[in-house]
């Protein structure tokens, strides 16, 4: 195990619990990751199998924490406990105290501000309790819905990294957003709706790889 690792943690928001993945999440993880909108912006395997979902829930997500790379939370409803997405940290630099956030939201939970609410909770924990200085998000320039989620979570747009990412259709430019400690005082309004009618949108999808 790496020397620098995040503690095994559970976080709570008004509507959700952010907790480690368990085998019980495998079916919903599979259903989320085979969804066409999820596949559009995430370089997940094609086809994405139930076995891969189980491996992620039982070993993969936990191994990334143990390696020091970051930490990955299952986002579950406080009422009923069903998985509605994931939010996590990756590419963590322990020396300069920076990390990168990523997320996806299950098809049955889109349009409700799920990713923004979970990201705000994760950002506050990272920048206060964990003593980090900067949180980044990188989204494909075409993934405007993910960029809107970043803004709702309080992150600020910075610049574009050319040819810095990839999706199934090829190389993409990435937009960089960031949040630093001073930004926490200017929390965004609580906007839970990515679609006024609650219908599924492309929102709340970003690379977790």
Q: How many H/I helical runs?
A: 5
Shape call: globular
State the share of residues found in helices, binned by percent: 25-40%
User: In whole angstroms, how far apart are the ends?
Assistant: 20 Å
Secondary-structure-derived class = alpha+beta
Q: Any overview of this molecule?
A:
Helices cover 27% and strands 30% of the residues. It starts with 10 loop residues before the first strand and ends in a 29-residue tail after the last strand. The chain has five helices and eight strands, in the order E-E-H-H-H-E-E-E-H-E-H-E-E. A hairpin with a 4-residue loop joins strand 4 and strand 5 (98-105). It has 209 residues and is an alpha+beta fold. Helix 1 (26-33) crosses helix 3. It has an eight-stranded mixed β-sheet, sandwiched between helices.
Give a short summary of the structure.
The chain is of the alpha+beta class and 209 residues long.
Present the secondary structure layout.
Elements: E1 11-12, E2 16-19, H1 26-33, H2 36-41, H3 50-66, E3 71-77, E4 83-93, E5 98-105, H4 114-129, E6 134-140, H5 144-152, E7 156-167, E8 170-180
Helix pairs in contact: 1-3
Q: Which key terms come to mind for this protein?
A:
single chain, alpha+beta, eight-stranded mixed beta sheet, 5 helices, 8 strands
């Amino acid at each position: 195990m790496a020397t620098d690792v995040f503690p095994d943690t559970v976080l709570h928001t008004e509507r959700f619990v952010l907790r480690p993945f368990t085998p019980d999440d495998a079916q919903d993880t599979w259903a989320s990751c085979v969804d066409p909108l999820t596949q559009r912006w995430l370089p997940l395997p094609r086809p994405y199998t139930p076995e891969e979902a189980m491996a992620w829930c039982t070993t993969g997500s936990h191994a990334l924490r143990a390696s020091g790379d970051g930490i990955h939370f299952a986002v579950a409803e406080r009422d009923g406990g069903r998985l509605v997405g994931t939010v996590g940290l990756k590419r963590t630099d322990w020396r300069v105290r920076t990390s990168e956030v990523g997320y996806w939201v299950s098809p049955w939970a889109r349009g409700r501000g799920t990713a923004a609410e979970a990201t705000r909770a994760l950002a506050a924990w990272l920048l206060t309790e964990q003593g980090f200085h900067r949180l980044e998000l990188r989204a494909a320039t075409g993934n405007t819905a993910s960029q809107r989620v970043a803004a709702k979570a309080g992150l600020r747009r910075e610049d574009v990294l050319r040819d810095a990412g990839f999706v199934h259709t090829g190389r993409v430019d990435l937009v960089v957003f960031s949040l630093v400690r001073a930004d926490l005082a200017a929390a965004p309004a609580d906007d839970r709706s990515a679609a006024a009618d609650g219908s599924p949108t492309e929102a709340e999808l970003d690379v977790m790889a």
